[in-house]
Amino acid sequence: MSRRGRAVAAVLLAATVSSGAVGAPGAVAAPGRGTERQARAWLPQPTGPYPVGTTSLRLTDDHRDDPWQAGQHRKLMISFWYPTTRPAGGDERAPYMVPAAADHFGSTGSAGQTAHGFEPGRTDWAGIRTHARADAPVLPGGKRPVVLYSAGFGDPRTWGTGLVEDLASRGYVVVTVDHTYDASEVAFPHGDLATSVLPALFAQPGVDAGALLRKILQTRVDDTRFVLDRLGELCHDQQVPSGLAASLDLDRIGMVGHSGGGSTALQTMHDDPRLKAGIDLDGQLHFPGPDGHTGVFPTSVAQDGLTKPFLLMGTQDGDSGSYHRQPGWDALWQHSTGWHADVTLTGSRHGSYTDAQSLLPQLARQGAISGEQLADDVGDVRPDRAVSATRSYVVSFLDRWLRGHDDHLLDGPSPRFPEMLYER
């Protein structure tokens, strides 16, 4: 298994919630807040011309049992981020996390706290605000391209909000997906909180890590395809703002994901023709084989390749970086006939393409995360440069393949971003 694969398994294994109620709806570990003042942080401003609106929706798949909880149908939370006519200011800005999710995310032993190394209870996660207005009216102007976003294994859908808001401000409708019982926590309406079952599963004696990782990925792909199904039925749902369904161009759908979400994006693109283009932000495409087998085994998308365009964005974290260094990425590269490119952000680490790059340095300055842990999460790249590069390369790719607008950033190495190493 790669360094990142081992890290995923180790984080999930170590992140067992001390209450022993991992995975039980409504289970929340004690926040563990001390007497110290809680650290505050903020997200970078979106750079597009449009104000941003957001709304959340609970989905239930009546045709699929939950793979992690026997006896119940699969339930998901998703959020829409879209251009609006009404900018938000002050307290009108939607929260980054709802209070129940924020308390759990920042608590001792949660998957989020263990993965990112911030001090339990030291950050006011509920106080972080987005730049979006909740349930705002949809900006008129016809159909807009749709982008799905999937966070990494164990991360909540909010962990990519900075990038998601920026895309919405540039005219995309973005749908973020929480993968229930995989994400550190998923808060449902009426107070139910579903926490991750993965730490306990990885902690089982003799666990087949490769098989478990494949099940996680397949569940995420199934979740994503179900969300795609529901997008086509959205006009009948009275819980979303008027005009949202009419704004979705379901012939122009792309997907972006980080880590396990990046693996999900490309695997779903392989499995479902509705996705036209995809970006993998540092997500591996190979897993360990079954017990007793040595080596690594590429996923089916890596073995078969893609005929549609994709972008790989790696970091300088262990065996990440160039596609040459990763068996799954290398296999995908060799077997693909569609347009593809690979960029690596110099000085970055695995968290550099997420909100960790913006939020954690602020927390470190307030003592809520150590300097050593900060460097391990996001490296030594300047946060503003990492955010600008991530946004620019993601939107350049999506504009090119979903809108037919090419700014030529992806033609080769760019003097605008000398920290981005480029391969075609």
Automatic annotation (TrEMBL):
One of its GO terms (biological process) is lipid catabolic process. Residues 1-23 form the signal peptide. SUPFAM superfamilies: alpha/beta-Hydrolases (SSF53474). Transmembrane segments: none annotated. It comes from the Bacteria. The lineage of its organism: Bacteria, Bacillati, Actinomycetota, Actinomycetes, Kitasatosporales. GO terms for molecular function: 1-alkyl-2-acetylglycerophosphocholine esterase activity. Pfam families: PAF-AH_p_II (PF03403). InterPro entries: AB_hydrolase_fold (IPR029058). Gene3D superfamilies: alpha/beta hydrolase. Keywords: Hydrolase, Lipid degradation, Lipid metabolism, Signal. This is Esterase.
